[in-house]
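Morning!

This is the sequence you dropped in the shared folder:
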Amino acid sequence: MAALLPGEWIKNWEKGGKSEFVQLCRALSENKNHDVGFRDIQQALYELAYHVVRGNLKHDQASNVLGDVIEFREDMPSILADVFCILDIETSCLEEKNKRDHFTQLVLACLYLVSDTVLKERLDPETLESLGLIKQSQQFNQKSVKIKTKLFYKQQKFNLLREENEGYAKLIAELGQDLSGNITSDLILENIKSLIGCFNLDPNRVLDIILEVYECRPEYDDFFVPLIESYMYMCEPQTLCHILGFKFKFYQDPSGETPSSLYRVAAVLLQHNLIELEDLYVHLLPGDNAIMEEHKREIVEAKQIVRKLTMVVLSSEKTEEKEKEKEKEEEKTEKPPDNQKLGLLEALLKIGDWHHAQSIMDQMPPFYTTSHKPIAVALCQLVHVTIEPLYRRVGVPKGAKGSPISSLPNQRAPKQAESFEELRKEVFNMLCYLGPHLSHDPILFAKVVRLGKAFMKEFQSDGSKQEDKEKMETLFSCLLSITDQVLLPSLSLMDCNACMSEELWGMFKTFPYQYRYRLYGQWKNETYNSHPLLVKVKAQTIDRAKYIMKRLTKENVKPSGRQIGKLSHSNPTILFDYILSQIQKYDNLITPVVDSLKYLTSLNYDVLAYCIIEALANPEKERMKHDDTTISSWLQSLASFCGAVFRKYPIELAGLLQYVANQLKAGKSFDLLILKEVVQKMAGIEITEEMTMEQLEAMTGGEQLKAEGGYFGQIRNTKKSSQRLKDALLDHDLALPLCLLMAQQRNGVIFQEGGEKHLKLVGKLYDQCHDTLVQFGGFLASNLSTEDYIKRVPSIDVLCNEFHTPHDAAFFLSRPMYAHHISSKYDELKKAEKGNKQQHKVHKYITSCELVMAPVHEAVISLHLPKVWDDISPQFYATFWSLTMYDLAVPHSSYDREVNKLKVQMKAIDDNQEMPPNKKKKEKERCTALQDKLLEEEKKQLEHVQRVLQRLKLEKDNWLLAKSTKNETITKFLQLCIFPRCIFSAIDAVYCAHFVELVHQQKTPNFSTLLCYDRVFSDIIYTVASCTENEASRYGRFLCCMLETVTRWHSDRVIYEKECGNYPGFLTILRATGFDGGNKADQLDYENFRHVVHKWHYKLTKASVHCLETGEYTHIRNILIVLTKILPWYPKVLNLGQALERRVHKICQEEKEKRPDLYALAMGYSGQLKSRKPFMIPENEFHHKDPPARNAVPATVQNGPGGAGMPTSLTINTVRLEEGTTEETDKLKEKSQGVVKVINKTVNATPKVTTSNGNSASNSKIIKEKDDKEKSGKEKDKEKKDKTPAATPEMKALGKDGKDKPKEERANKEEKAREIKEKTPKSDKEKEKVKKEEKASKEEKSKTVVTIIESKSAAEKEREKEPSRERDLAKEMKSKENAKGGEKVPVAGSLKSPVPRSETSESEREQKRRKVDTHSSPSHSSTVKDNLNELKDSSAKHYINHTTPTLSKSKEREVEKKDMDKSRERSREREKKDEKDRKERKRDHSNSDREVPQDSTKRRKEENGTTGSSKHSKSESPSDSPRLNEKEKEKNKSKSSGKEKSDSIKAEKMEKSSSGSKKESRHDKEKTEKKDKRDSAGGKEEKKHHKSSDKHR
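The structure's back. Tokens below.
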């Protein structure tokens, strides 16, 4: 700090320094800032004095100037004394003595300015002595000590002898007198003052006596409190607190017990604010730290107890443990030291001082205070008092009197609650401090719950203002907190109080389930850890639960159930958690547990629902087994338990259903298992693939029949449970969302959920999802009222386009709606007009159908591309999807079966002697009522079905438009209707089969039944391979029903003629304009139908064998399932059955170790197949009937299908076609790897496939006509002309004249007879030719012989492929050479052999054929023999083979009939003609070389058409044809190259074509098909022409 006194001033002191200093001091004194002035003056004076001490200024000069300055401030002498004090200390430390002297002189000079007393206070005694102010410093020190002691430490004692005892006696008499009169505290206070004065009483002791008397007379609060308050004005404020503290200290010995009266007095004084809690709290024991330690110790002990309970203790140790525990318990029961803080707290609560009580509670650990029962009880009492008025107003149940509680006497107690808002302010707070210890007062518990109930009632009734609403919201959240922190924990500590549980449910059921579950979750997972007592309770509950569960069996369900019930009243969450964990491990516990839960309260059932959901949602549990192919057993057990428990007990379902919906939203379908079980158990609707046909039949009847005969378990009494399920779905709007989510999730399972999963599991999940959808939809349809259903399900286009529901599911959901709509409209119309005639009724029904279905027809148009509706009408589509089996047929046998059962039951009741009569009567009444219901239902259904059939009869003409082709129509029908629906459910599978039959029976225009069945049976590999397990089962059912129909027609000519003979569905010529029903020639006759059926059986065998040989899990499993389903109708033919048996046996051997489930399936099927063996028949019985005319025909025919039952042209055709069989299986394998879309495949493949096995060549005609249909008559003619440029004029004429049918037929007959003759070489020349052929193909023969030996094993089919093809080529080449030398015939495809035939060789051939026929189609031994025969045959055969497929079935039938009589005559005529032919041939032989180019072109055309078609049949791929044809053309051009070379080229090309075919687009396929058809048509025309020219000749 800068010096205030510059050195110049001191030097020039006298001149100007003095005056400057005086001015400075004046200025400083006048400074308004007092503190700054004071410090600066101090410094100025100090500097001045310091200059004197140093000798710069004389002391007299300084004393003079100080005399001038002293007046400036009042406190200037004191400031100066301070300066002297500082200098005194400083100079006493200095060694220079002169400085000390200067200081002494200065002080002496200034004595007149500062008084002695001030200096004596400030200066050192030694300095004072040197100044002469005191005599001796030592004496001065002693004296000051004595004075200080006297001042500060000596007490004013009231001498006990001076106090008079009489005063205290009078004091006690004053305080103890009767205070009931008009004596006031002021009066007594005056008397007390007098006594203190008169008898010299100690005021503190007087206060102590007042408190003692107050302790003894607690009822006089109103007197003592004011007295003490007035008395305290005379004492120091702390005195009262100290006296009380001293009293408490007196009782703090380990043996001491503080009297409650003292606590009460302290509490009252605290309440009246006469003492502070903080002041008193320090006097109380134990300290807060000790309390914390004790609390921690309690928690540790609780945890130890838990550990002991969960430890597995051996029995010998158990007794010791128990003894030790008892000793410990006894030790604990020794009285704990007195806790004065808790005593005071209790007293505060009793008098209602909540404010101070809360402060004490806050100092301690949570719930520590209330864990002491007296405090908990006191707090409960306080709450009782506080809620009393509100409880009396809103909480008391009707009819209950209750015992009113009087309010506390003092005014300072909490205000009693009159409204819910006031309840929140104080009571909720009190309850929070109580926590789980509300359990000490069940009555208060019930009161709080009832208030909660009353509040919820008010809360849920609308109509309050916005402000009130906000308040109510706050109150509601407070109520939830109270429930969580107080009510539920308290329930856990109550000892199995079922009434409290029910009372609590009264309030809980008003909460939404989301809140309830949240509370249960907190209760289960958090509450039990919050308090040592609850920790113990949890452990004891688990221990007890283990004890009960170990002993639970079916036999002791009742006693165990009671124990479970007792335990569940208090701690349901813990108990159920344990029970569920046991159920997940041991599913055999489900039934006893479900039965034992009958003693639960409503709250416990709700908690159980929560616990189940929590267990299901457990993230730590894997939902799949370790093999990743099956759903975990714990999930299956839980689902099963869910179904059983929700059905048996009235548990709310909303939470569980919402959980399933949420899981579906998240793309998880595992939990659908739960929904499936719940619906099955609660509604009695089962979904199982194991239904018998009887059950399925019953399922097509009415509701009563379904219930009686449709389900496995006769699930009775589902009315209530299904009603509960329905209500839950409707109340929470979950019905439609669940349906839509399931429908969408079906694809989700595959494309989203199934990414990483095993295919088997994906299939299982898909099935589960689909089955649950079907089951759930069925439940909704049968349980929702019409209005409810219609209100919830949107229209079909909205379902599909907006909600992206798959079409099958969308119609499944909408179907009941249409039925409801139609029936309600029908009822309206019936009421409107009373006409009761059947016709009127039908008319009304049809009208109502039109009204309801018209918007549906509009809506479905948007579901598919416009070109779909060219072939099938929206009306047909909607009709197919909206009808059910109930509409198509009445299951009379099922009704009869159930009625008979009831009759038997009634008879049994009559015969039962033990049954009491009243029960008998009841049972009989029940049976009679049921019987009447069933009969009534049957009658109702019969009427309904008749109405529906009438409706269909009217509709049918507009169903199939067939604007493109019939083939395309069938494709659309199968693709959009049959296939999606037949795998939807078992009943739908049956429905599809029935519907096809119905469409046939209705004689629906443009519907080819033959094509439809052919498509269904032809190539099932793709459909089977793409099914899940359950879909395969349903597909099997569909095929079974289809086969049943076919087998019925096949079994008897009469049935066939009646049901198919004259029906448009069996037309073999498909004309563009409708059908010509009168023309019998176009119909497929019975015998040919049998060939077709055999072909279908053969197709099924081939597909089955292929699937079994793939080694693919899905293929094998699915085909085995399908085969098992169709076992009643297939295999019927012995050799096919044997082929299957061998493959299945192989599967059994291969899969035994690898895939046990396939092994089990195969073994099951194998066993059933063996049992069917006696019913199988040889092939010739199945479709081989010899007409008499054919007896002498020698057959080189391929085994099986082409028996002589067919016209010979067909027979011959089969020869060629059968060669393809060995290759087909292989090619199928190739194809299945690059799977083409199934339906498209079948569309394109059918035309050629049908003829491929040679079972029936009739389809080739169908193909032609189908093609014709696409063109107008003129176009056809044109094409025919184009195709046969070398045709004769007669031929052209025929081509133009489509009506010349008889001629064609005659020509056909002759042609066939001629072909038969051609087959056997007769003339020498012909024989020579054959010999040459044989020589030329000896190598092939030798190969063939080898293959004959080896061909028995199925594995060697492949080896046969190449040789057979080479032989084909060889034959082709030779036939071409022969043709060169033959007659010049304009038509390349029909060269005739001029050699006459003899009957003997024909009979030989017939015998050969019989031998051949005994072989089975799939084992290809006979193929080889055939090939040998073919080699022997003449060149003409080659061409015949190519042309014959184009003959129509109708013509064949005609031929067959007429041929029988005329064939012998014709053969004689032909022999004569042949003689002529031979001569002509000799003549023209030389010209043949010139004819080659022309011939070859004809031949090429020929091959492009007909040969192509037969060749494609081998590869069974429609797309093979174009390439093959091109290549054959090239070959014909380069004929001159060697046989072997051409053989190999051809084989190569065949292979290439099959692989190339895959790449071609569908468009190309169609084009090439059409071309082939055209060509084949051309071939036919040529043939016709040739026949007619023959005749002219």
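Headline: The chain has a mean pLDDT of 75.

More detail when I'm at my desk.
O.
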